[in-house]
Specification:
Blueprint: H1 2-15, E1 25-27, E2 30-36, E3 42-50, E4 56-62, E5 67-72, E6 83-90, E7 96-104, E8 107-112, H2 116-124, E9 127-132, E10 135-140, H3 144-163
Antiparallel strand pairs: 1-2, 2-3, 3-4, 4-5, 5-8, 6-7, 6-9, 7-8, 9-10
Helix pairs in contact: 2-3
């Protein structure tokens, strides 16, 4: 279920970058805010940044606090539903082996473990290197520490608001 929710969020992001995303915070290279479904209910908070070569990188945290990393590139033509191996390296830390699920012809979702080592590495890192789809992608993590905090606060705020 968590992968399905995140995949839907990424699909919306890929197919319509401006679809129902309200920009609430900016941090370094990141811009983020909440997203709402067609029913008007809160679905997730997403923060995005674009690399110099046009690749869109996004972190998504669902209302259930599942999170993932999405990559989108209009130049890709991928087979939806396929799973690809992926390796993430943050600075000189040990590689994180995972998988990328193709959720759109132009985008993949990489579910991330909501654990201290992964979150801390992203918060404190300078460069994220992603090996996926035969590409070696390097992404500067400028402002990521504050942006991840803002992203989590966004989810908490909107989950609490729905409870009221």
């Amino acid at each position: 279920m968590a992968l399905r929710v995140l995949a839907f969020a990424v699909l919306l992001m890929v197919t319509s970058a401006s679809a129902s995303v309200v920009s609430v915070f900016n941090s370094g290279i990141w811009e983020g805010g909440p997203k709402f479904g067609a029913d008007g209910r809160f679905s997730d908070c997403t923060m995005t940044a674009q690399s110099e070569d046009g690749l869109l990188l996004a972190f998504v945290i669902s209302k259930d606090f599942d999170w993932g990393l999405a990559l989108a590139d209009e130049r890709w033509n991928l087979d939806v539903g396929v799973t690809k191996e992926v390796t993430l390296v943050i600075d000189a830390n040990a590689p994180i082996e995972s998988f990328a699920k193709v959720v759109d012809p132009h985008g993949v979702l990489i579910p991330l473990e909501n654990s201290d080592p992964v979150v801390d590495a992203l918060r404190n890192g300078s460069v994220l290197t992603i090996d996926v789809l035969g590409s070696h992608i390097r992404f500067k993590l400028t402002g990521t520490r504050a942006a991840i905090g803002d992203l989590a606060a966004c989810v908490t705020e909107h989950v609490n608001a729905e409870k009221v």
